[in-house]
Amino acid sequence: MGQKINPNIFRLGINKTWKTEFFEKKTHELPLYTFKDLEIKSYIERFFETQGIILHDYKQHYSDSTLNLYVSYFISSEFIIDKKLDNNSKVTLIDKEGNKKTVLDTSLDTKQILNLKAPLFKNQNILNSYKIKEYLKANSSLLLKPDSNEIVPVKKFVENSTSLKVEGILNNLFKVLSLFTNNKFNIIINFCCLNKDLNFLKKTQKKNFILLQKFKGTPFLKEGIELLFHVVYNRSSAHLLTKFIAIQIKKVKRHKFFLSFLKQTLTILSNSEFSKVKGIKILIKGRLNGVPRAKHKTITIGDTPVQSFNSTLDYSQMTVHNANGSYGIKVWIIEK
């Protein structure tokens, strides 16, 4: 009939739990907590998106005066750790007679500073694109004191209250969250980076990936294999897969070529030993390949009992806009 319920909401209390937990003392606090949850989640997702980071999973938990956030993410190829500011920029001066003179300008305009993408952390090397993981591993839990801008590790805060100031954009994340909550909560964020070394994947699946040779040279091959591996290996990865498809539909013009890569790669990975996925169903509707009329494309891999309560299912949907119009993306992932 077209009146379809969200599969995640439909399974709450059976094999799904709420990703946001809180206890309201009065009835009028319920819409307030719901509004805060939606706003904080959308801000964190947009914040990561501007840095080239894809949000994988997000959970929120309120306890007394503490706000706990659990964030897992995937670092994409667009992520820029550091961008050195060139103070010695060249400026060309032209006099009334039309003579040109090139001068070194040592002062940097404030507009240029705002336009440049600031580093996430201080003293990072651009050669190591995953150095952020080492920092987050050492300080996986960071805490923001209320009524102050100090960010301290939880362990040190409990033991001797020594402060650790995180510089760069991450500091802005804590400032925005503290302003949004009116400095009433101690904010604790637990980060988890999905990107790991995939040497064992290359060795075990070397023969299988020979089938993907026709996609050699495409911009989505290397990153796509790594991201789709984490989709199959980690649970609750429907949002990560949906976001990846949305990004590629904006970039790539040959949509059906990309979808054939998606189906072949997911088939190879889902049939492997480390797979935690029983089946995947993807539904995309829009002007694929820029055709005049919109069509829908369905990709089904493995067993997909979408209407069964016994199956552990993760669902995500998203709408993307580009020059050809709007595209609707729906993803169902059935876990083992």
TrEMBL record:
Organism this protein belongs to: Nitzschia alba (Marine diatom)
GO biological process, one term: translation
A GO-annotated cellular component: cytosolic small ribosomal subunit
Gene3D superfamilies tied to this protein: Ribosomal protein S3, C-terminal domain
Keyword DNA repair annotated: no
GO molecular function, one term: RNA binding
Pfam families for the chain: Ribosomal_S3_C (PF00189)
Domain Small ribosomal subunit protein uS3 C-terminal, residue spans: 267-333
Regions that span the bilayer: none
Protein name as it appears in the record: Ribosomal protein S3
Homology family: Belongs to the universal ribosomal protein uS3 family.
Alphabetical UniProt keywords: Mitochondrion, Ribonucleoprotein, Ribosomal protein
Keyword Ribosomal protein in annotation: yes
InterPro entries recorded: KH_sf_prok-type, Ribosomal_S3_C_sf, Ribosomal_uS3, Ribosomal_uS3_C
